[in-house]
Backbone:
């Protein structure tokens, strides 16, 4: 077996060495495919991992809202589940919205292992500083509980979270809002609520999470203050949870939703739009890489077809000597395999170099998150997948001509050559 | 009466197509161990086609080819390949040496494929074969560095690599000058006389054919009576 295998290897390498330039071009094609695969997938996975890590780090893992996923059924529909019911003149009840029994809910959740819960009331306010108005989402928090649920404290670039308690009407602004208003730490602003209340507030902190939607649109006040401003005393409309294991967020959210009925969203659901973009990105990447590999495969197909065309006489004599069809097929499949393998190894080096190159590029961009350069996430897995794809493509490209070569009838060639 | 090694029983070979072409139209012949036979005939008479049938490179439409008494019809292509590898050696008009390999490596290829001898043993055997054919000094050279006569002798050494019972040659001197043709025929004669090989040579050269033990003359795919009488 060893003798036969080494013979097949010898013949295959001899063929490739004879067509050195074409072989080199094919190898280069495979290398480019592999290299760009590694570079691009490191880039995308890097950005995705970075974004997800940010989200998990900064925002609550699960948010319970004072909404229902489906509107409650009308009494008529409950009474006659099989009938066709039309209710005319339905008007929304003008009730005080909020999560009922929030206190006991939070107490119960806090008793569970690996879950921290904090109450918030969220509403819209307009912040005014001088002549500038900026609308913002006011989040009423209890600082003691909040620091266990989000990383707000760590994200403060000015001020302290405790000042929210110690200052009469303190507000912590997102970095983007502060910039738009031109407000600095210690400045006094006016906050207007939809309920008509006007409150003088003082900037006691500025935070920067890196997530643009938070930095540009959120400000934090004491829970009591927001309840008063919005005219909704003792109301809580969001319970925010932090889990020890963020990957359980979707499960925990659906358990809570089925228990309490309120719409609960894990961080995946909350950021579905962004995560959806990632899926599209992946699709685009695989299509691009696939195209490169297909082109590389055509190169391999071409070089092996050329070799076979040149080597029909050799194939004929080998068959006459007693080589089986399978031996001939192996020779040419191996040629594809060799191109794929060498291409992969060079491609790994290229991919590594692309990653180093990208990592050294510095720039600043704000899209979903604030970035100061490419975030790369390289795993051995990417290298393995890229190599495996290249090998499969190369072998497949070699398979078609190899099969044709094996089917050649030695008599036809010998007769023609004589 | 020596042992029959190769035999054809009323073989026919018809090329299928809209117009069927009959290459071989019923040939009965047998070849004993140590036989040195020439197959002659005008061009297009089917003598090469007959050799390919004998060499298991082609299969008859009808009839049977027997190698060492065993019928070969119905064997798979790999079974035929392994019979060719072990029992048959081929020499063609064109040398068909692999240009990327040295002379020695070319001779080693059939033995490496057969995987009976160790690497060292088959290398030694290849060297001996080349020595016997006066090619010791050429063993490290590549085929394109040799003369036509030398190349054909390397091809003969390769045909002998696995010590086959039968050597089949298709116009082996067709590309050679008369001096080299002489040399090649001397080798074939020695193989039959001294090594007991069955040597079957297709040639259109009557002078060379006359040096064999017997001549089969094929015309239009049949043995002619003249040749049959000589059997």
Residues:
């Amino acid at each position: 077996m060893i003798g036969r295998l080494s013979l097949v290897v010898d013949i295959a390498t001899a063929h490739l060495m004879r067509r050195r330039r074409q072989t080199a071009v094919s190898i280069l094609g495979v290398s480019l495919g592999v290299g760009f695969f590694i570079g691009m997938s490191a880039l995308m996975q890097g950005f995705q991992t970075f974004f997800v890590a940010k989200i998990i780090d900064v925002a609550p893992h699960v948010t319970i809202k004072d909404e229902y996923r489906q509107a409650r059924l009308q009494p008529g529909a409950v009474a006659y589940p099989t009938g066709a019911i039309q209710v005319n003149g339905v008007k929304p009840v003008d009730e005080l919205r909020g999560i009922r029994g929030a206190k006991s809910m939070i107490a119960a959740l806090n008793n569970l292992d690996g879950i921290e819960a904090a109450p918030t009331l969220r509403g819209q306010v307009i912040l005014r500083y001088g002549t500038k108005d900026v609308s913002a989402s006011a989040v009423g928090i209890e600082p003691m509980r909040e620091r266990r649920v989000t990383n707000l404290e760590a994200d403060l670039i000015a001020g302290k979270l405790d000042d929210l308690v110690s200052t009469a009407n303190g507000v912590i602004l997102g970095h983007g809002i502060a910039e738009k208003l031109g407000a600095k730490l210690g400045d006094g602003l006016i906050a207007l609520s939809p309920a008509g209340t006007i409150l003088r507030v003082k900037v006691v902190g500025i935070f920067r999470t890196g997530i643009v939607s938070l930095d540009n649109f959120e400000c934090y006040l004491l829970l009591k203050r927001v309840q008063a401003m919005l005219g909704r005393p003792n109301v809580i409309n969001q319970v925010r949870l932090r889990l020890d294991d963020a990957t359980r967020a979707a499960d925990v959210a659906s358990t809570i939703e089925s228990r309490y009925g309120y719409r609960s969203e894990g961080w995946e659901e909350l950021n579905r739009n962004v995560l959806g973009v990632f899926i599209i990105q992946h699709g685009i990447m695989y299509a691009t890489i696939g195209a490169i590999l297909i082109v590389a495969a055509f190169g391999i197909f071409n070089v092996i077809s050329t070799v076979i065309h040149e080597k029909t006489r050799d194939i004929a004599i080998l068959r006459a000597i007693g080589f089986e069809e399978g031996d001939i097929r192996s020779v040419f499949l191996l040629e594809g395999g060799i191109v794929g393998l060498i291409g992969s190894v060079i491609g790994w080096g290229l991919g590594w170099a692309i990653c180093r190159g990208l990592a050294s590029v510095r720039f600043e961009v704000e899209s979903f998150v604030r970035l100061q350069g490419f975030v790369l996430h390289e795993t051995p897995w990417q290298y393995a997948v890229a190599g495996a794809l290249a090998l499969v493509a190369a072998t497949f490209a070699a398979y078609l001509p190899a099969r044709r070569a094996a089917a050649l009838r030695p008599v036809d060639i010998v007769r023609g050559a004589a | 009466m020596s042992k029959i090694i190769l035999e054809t029983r009323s073989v026919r070979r018809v090329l299928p197509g809209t117009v069927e072409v009959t290459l071989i139209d019923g040939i009965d012949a047998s070849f004993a161990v140590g036989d040195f036979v020439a197959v002659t005939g005008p061009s297009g008479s089917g003598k090469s086609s007959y050799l390919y049938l004998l060499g298991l490179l082609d299969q008859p439409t009808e009839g049977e080819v027997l190698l060492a008494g065993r019928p070969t019809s119905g064997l798979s292509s790999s079974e035929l390949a392994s019979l060719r590898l072990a029992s048959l050696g081929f020499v063609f008009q064109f040398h068909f040496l692999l240009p990327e390999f040295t002379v020695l490596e070319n001779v080693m290829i059939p033995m490496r494929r057969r995987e009976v001898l160790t690497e060292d043993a088959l290398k030694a055997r290849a060297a001996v074969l080349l020595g016997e054919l006066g090619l010791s000094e050429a063993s490290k050279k590549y085929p394109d560095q040799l003369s036509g006569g030398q190349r054909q002798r390397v091809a003969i050494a390769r045909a002998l690599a696995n010590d086959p019972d039968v050597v089949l040659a298709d116009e082996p001197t067709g590309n050679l000058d008369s001096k080299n043709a002489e040399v090649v025929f001397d080798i074939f004669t020695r193989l039959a006389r001294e090594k007991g090989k069955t040597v079957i040579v297709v040639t259109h050269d009557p002078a060379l054919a006359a040096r064999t033990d017997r001549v089969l003359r094929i015309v239009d795919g049949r043995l002619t009576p003249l040749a049959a009488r000589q059997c």
Q: What stands out?
A: Residues 2-56+274-417 of chain A form one domain.
